[in-house]
Structure formats: structure tokens, C-alpha cells
């Protein structure tokens, strides 16, 4: 029973780390999948297979080499020098992304709860600090509550959409976009999200005693990500093309399902931002801890202070410059992981 419980903790943490705010709003799914019509149904299946295979592989290799942070895995894949530089670049991107996530949490408080922007920032940072005092286990416990709520909401959205006139459009919807774009999109989406999740997937694998728990946690977690992708695509396809004009397409769907669903959806958007923020801060802290003699609490506070300062200004211009390079690095990283020694998967 204890091993089964650990499998689901790993699976839920995997899902919670991948499913960030962009996923919750539906914007990412619209851009990478739904806008390509019925081809998206097939490419989501492809993305799901990659999440199962490569996410599990990251955790198994991390467990085998007992990686302390994602830098250890990078050095294992790319060599000492190249792995170090790749980790440093990832560190900069993660700081930028976390600053934007923190800003997103502030916006949720300001726009939907009629509280100040600063209140949202401080609630997020204080909550993160106290959760991280217990390390990876506290992240797993948090996701054990958040992810079942996400999955339940996906089931509610499916049950409501299945009775709508456009429920079969996910199989028939056409698109004007080139077919090549439809097939490149899931590769980019999977690569980017796996690299962004790596700071927590590495310690998740290395700090788990059971190889079997890591393996099945990755399989169930990747399947869960695929299920939520398909649920959102199914719901948005039924309302295409009109729904594509919304900045938060899933919010538009939630608004049609009543006040209770709206409140739950709003709460989940914040919790998804929060859970991803916590996981990334934890992964960055492990990296800095390897390079300094500072205590983890001091490092965590320093990183959050940095994110707080830059959340006041936004990182948009910087990230618009770095993201294309980061996207190329993600594809290179996933290609290297794909081709890396298959015997590593055997225990």
C-alpha cells in the first residue's frame, strides 16, 4: 500500500509540475494543439507518449546516478563543461519564468479577488517558504490535493461538453495552418515542458527508493497530462473558432458552467501557478546549494527576493529574446535524452 501511495504521489507531482498557468488558462493548448483542428487529437496522443517515455526516463536516470540537482543530470548527458553551461542558462530562464509566474499570482488576486497585487505576491512567497521547509515531500503532498481537483474539473468539463452540439468537432475540425506546423508543435510543447519540469523531476526520481514506484509514477503521470490535454482540447474544439479570440479560453468555458465551477476554476488557476512556482524554486535552490555553502533557507529567500523585485517590472522583453534560444536548447536536450543509453532504463 505504501508503494502504491508513493506511485500516485510521484504521478500527481509530475502532473502538477507540467500543468502550469498556461495550461490552466487553455492558451498553451490552443496555440500548440487546438488551432490545428482534428490533427490535434493525434498530436496530443504523440505528446502523451513522449511525456510518458521521457518523463519516466528523466526520473529513472536521476535515480540511477543519484543526481542532487538538474545540473548533475545535464553533466551526465552532455559532459562536465557543456552540462555546466547548459544548467547556468536554464537557471537564468527559470528565474525569469518564476518572476512572471509570481506576477501572475499577483494578477489573480488583483483582477479576481479585488485584493492588491502585492498581497498576491506576498501570500505566494510566504506559502512557498513554509512548504519548502520540508523539501520534496511537502511538494508531493501539496500536489496530492491539487491534482485530483484538476482532474475532477477536467471530468466536469468533459461531461458538460459531451452534450453540446459541437462535441464531435475535435474529430472533424479543419485548419488553415500548414500540416508541418501541426506536427512540430507537440515536439516543441513536450520539449519545453519537460525541461521546465526537470528541476523537480530530477530530485523526485533520485530521492525515491523504489525503481518500480518511479517507473509507474512516470507512466501514470504522463498519461494524466495527456488526459488533461485531451479534455481541454475536446472542450475548446466544440466552441471553435469563436473561443480562440479569448485570452483565457478555458475561463470562458468555466463561466458557462455556473458560479461554483467558476470559483473552483479560479482557485485552481492560482493553485497551479503556486504549485509550479514552489517546484521551480525548490529545483533552483538545489542547484545553488551545490555551488555555495549557504543554507537552503537563505538561498530560497534570496531567489524569491529576486523574483519579487523583477515581478514589479516584468521579464517580457528579456524572455522574448531568450525564449527562441531556450526553445532550440529544449529540442537539443530532449533529442540527447531520447538517444541516451537505453540500458539506463533497466534496473
From TrEMBL:
Keywords: Membrane, Transmembrane, Transmembrane helix. It comes from the Bacteria. The chain crosses the membrane at residues 7-24, 36-54, 85-109, 115-132, 144-163, 183-204, 216-236, 256-282, 294-315, 321-339. It comes from Paenibacillus campinasensis. InterPro entries: YkvI-like. This is Membrane protein YkvI.
Amino acid at each position: 500500500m505504501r508503494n502504491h501511495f508513493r506511485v500516485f504521489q510521484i504521478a500527481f507531482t509530475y502532473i502538477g509540475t507540467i500543468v502550469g498557468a498556461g495550461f490552466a488558462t487553455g492558451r498553451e493548448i490552443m496555440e500548440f494543439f487546438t488551432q490545428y483542428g482534428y490533427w490535434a487529437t493525434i498530436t496530443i496522443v504523440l505528446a502523451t507518449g513522449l511525456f510518458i517515455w521521457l518523463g519516466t526516463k528523466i526520473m529513472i536516470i536521476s535515480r540511477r546516478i543519484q543526481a542532487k540537482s538538474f545540473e548533475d543530470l545535464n553533466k551526465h548527458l552532455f559532459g562536465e563543461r557543456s552540462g555546466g553551461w547548459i544548467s547556468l542558462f536554464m537557471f537564468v530562464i527559470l528565474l525569469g519564468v518564476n518572476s512572471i509566474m509570481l506576477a501572475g499570482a499577483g494578477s489573480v488576486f488583483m483582477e479576481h479577488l479585488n485584493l492588491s497585487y502585492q498581497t498576491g505576491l506576498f501570500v505566494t512567497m510566504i506559502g512557498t517558504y513554509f512548504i519548502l521547509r520540508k523539501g520534496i515531500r511537502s511538494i508531493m503532498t501539496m500536489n496530492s490535493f491539487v491534482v485530483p481537483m484538476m482532474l475532477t474539473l477536467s471530468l466536469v468539463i468533459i461531461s458538460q461538453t459531451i452534450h453540446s452540439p459541437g462535441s464531435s468537432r475535435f474529430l472533424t475540425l479543419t485548419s488553415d495552418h500548414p500540416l508541418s506546423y501541426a506536427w512540430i508543435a507537440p515536439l516543441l510543447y513536450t520539449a519545453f515542458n519537460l525541461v521546465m519540469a526537470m528541476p523537480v523531476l530530477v530530485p523526485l526520481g533520485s530521492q525515491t527508493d523504489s525503481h518500480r514506484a518511479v517507473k509507474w509514477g512516470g507512466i501514470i503521470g504522463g498519461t494524466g497530462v495527456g488526459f488533461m490535454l485531451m479534455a481541454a482540447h475536446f472542450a475548446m474544439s466544440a466552441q471553435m473558432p469563436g473561443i480562440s479570440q479569448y485570452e483565457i479560453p478555458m475561463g470562458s468555458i468555466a463561466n458557462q458552467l455556473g458560479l461554483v465551477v467558476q470559483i473552483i476554476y479560479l482557485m485552481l488557476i492560482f493553485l497551479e501557478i503556486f504549485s509550479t512556482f514552489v517546484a521551480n524554486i525548490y529545483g533552483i535552490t538545489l542547484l545553488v546549494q551545490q555551488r555555495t555553502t549557504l543554507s537552503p533557507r537563505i538561498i530560497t529567500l534570496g531567489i524569491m527576493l529576486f523574483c519579487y523585485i523583477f515581478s514589479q517590472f516584468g521579464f517580457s522583453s528579456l524572455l522574448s529574446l531568450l525564449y527562441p534560444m531556450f526553445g532550440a536548447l529544449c529540442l537539443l536536450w530532449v533529442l540527447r535524452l531520447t538517444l541516451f543509453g537505453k540500458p539506463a532504463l533497466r534496473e
